[in-house]
Structures are given as C-alpha cells and as structure tokens.
Input
Amino acid sequence: MFLEIITPDKKLFSGEVTSVKLPGTDGSFGLLNNHAPIIASLKKGTVNVINDHKETQQFSINGGVVEMLNNKVILLAE
Output
C-alpha cells in the first residue's frame, strides 16, 4: 500500500509500506494492505511504519487525521 505523511510544513514520508501502526484517539490500531476504507482521528504519539524491506521507521506526531482508501493512506499530522 502507498503511504503519505504530510505536516503543515513538509511531506515527512512518501512510499510503499507493508503496515502502519497509528495512535488513534480511541486506542492504537494498524493498517495493512487491502484494509477497508477508514477515516480516523489521531492523538499525540508515534506512527510506526514497516516498509517492504521489513525496516521500521518511527514518526512522532501531535495528532491529526488518517484516511485509507484503495490501498492509499494519507496521514495529515500536526
């Protein structure tokens, strides 16, 4: 699936990933390939991204919104 992490200042990440773990306002959750469409609010925390090479990257956010549709994830972070 394709992931973009965007802040008001810049694009933090853009590329193909295997999974994403997010700090949702009602608890953390993960997204995998072919996940059902979703829009969710996020709280302050860490976004864990696992790329196609099984490498993990972490991004700290202060909240935001995530949308997944047709294997494309857009994360608008504060």
Summary: The chain has no helices and six strands.
